[in-house]
Amino acid sequence: MTTITSFFFFLLGLSSIFPVSFSTNILSLGKKNSDRLLSSVVFPLKGNVYPLGYYSVSINIGKGDEAFEFDIDSGSDLTWVQCDAPCTDCTKPREQLYKPNNNALNCFEPLCISLHPITNHHCKSADDQCQYEIEYADHGSSLGVLVNDHVPLKLTNGSLATPRIAFGCGYEHKYSVPDSPPPTAGVLGLGNGEVSFISQLSNMGVVRNVVGHCLSEEGGFLFFGDELVPSSGVTWTSMSHESIGGYYSSGPAEVYFGGKATGIKDLTLVFDSGSSYTYFNSQAYNSILALVRNNLRGKPLEDAPEDKSLPVCWKGPRPFKSLHDVKKYFNPLALRFTKTKKAQIQLAPEAYLIITKYGNVCFGILNGTEVGLGNLNIIGDISLKDKMVIYDNERRQIGWFPTNCNKFKKEGQSLCQPEGLFSILTENYQGYIRKIF
Ligand SMILES: *[C@@H]1O[C@H](CO)[C@@H](O)[C@H](O)[C@H]1NC(C)=O
Ligand SMILES: *[C@@H]1O[C@H](CO)[C@@H](O)[C@H](O)[C@H]1NC(C)=O
Q1: Is there a contact between 36 and 170 (Cβ–Cβ < 8 Å)?
Q2: Is 281's C-beta closer than 6 angstroms to any atom of ligand 2?
Q3: Cα angle vertex 213, ends 220, 346, to 5°?
Q4: pLDDT (tens digit, 9 = 90+) per residue, 373-408?
Q5: Rounded CA gap, 86 and 84, in Å?
Q6: Contact 287 CB / ligand 1 (< 6 Å)
Q7: Is 201 in the pocket of ligand 1 (CB under 6 A)?
Q8: Dmax over Cα atoms in the chain, in whole Å?
Q9: From CA 33, how far away is CA 416, in angstroms rounded?
Q10: Model's pTM, two decimal places?
Q11: Domains, the chain, ordered by start
């Protein structure tokens, strides 16, 4: 879910107005880039690429410690949750909606101003609430009011932080596929714009301005702060300008297929955990699909247009049970970042194929031009999984390395119990680093 944000101004009936100052509370303001050792926050993730198509995290908000499920999206900044206000197209039962408590941000607050293009920021009176509207590349959208509330966070050093974080209380939603609303209560924006979760946490001195994820077929984990980032073994490439206050992008990149250059180059790539699949612009897409098809000549796979799971599918003599059965028929792809020596992302067949419930294999790279992405190329969950991906906003770099993102489970702990995860991190921290990396 990459965003192309635009904002409008409406008035709404979300209770009245209140002076709220944006304060950091318990945690003192830390200096950015100081040498002070900061802690990190780690959350377990749920989800998969197929059939679910998203990864989500459960985060508590407010004094009542109510948990909300958020779709994690490195392609956008704003975090929002469905709001218990007169609500259009909120899909959750009332008791699972966020209840605002006179905590809307004022229209003149810096965070509200940061959300709006200068020309579009019209505060009519000093009492106006901060309205937002966010629109995603898939044409989904959320409209609401920016509020702030305590978000209790267990830090890896054992402390509990309860920073006050600003996020959207969304009361009007549109979904990209109208009849299949997303099952999550909202979106967690992992971008690096001022309003994003990580920007706010790092401005308050809770963690360094580093965020990352490790996605697997069974979930994985998400982290804020730099403690999980190993000091060696990570491939880094620099973020490009587009990465400021928006999505994380890098490039230019060149595509290799089966170890050979394809002539497809100068691709700008956006790392988007909010997108289930990978998208290339029409030209690159056509070439890559042609290479994959050519390579299938003489192999026991035929087109399976009857399988509508994705635009391009193939069937074998018998239904496939797993990617293990088919990966020998496909070559690995690689994306080489031409400006950074030796920086490449390996895309094994598992990083661009799925096996559908019909036992066919489908191509998980899609035609971005067809869905209106223009020249943007998106690396989605299918290609991000089984890697730790790090967005280091302090050094303005994106890094990755292949790893088993289910390792927490192997420690005999369930990923669904933050407590379990937390104790591994605090009690066994050094050991954990060694074992995983
Ligand atoms: C843990 O780290 C936070 C900052 O990230 C700091 O404020 C807190 O004092 C630390 N707690 C301990 C026990 O060191
Ligand atoms: C990709 O989409 C563009 C725009 O809709 C279309 O012209 C092109 O033929 C598509 N490519 C393939 C291989 O379908």
Answers
A1: no
A2: no
A3: 95
A4: 888 899 999 999 999 999 999 999 999 999 999 875
A5: 7
A6: no
A7: no
A8: 71
A9: 33
A10: 0.86
A11: 41-229 (2.40.70.10), 235-402 (2.40.70.10)
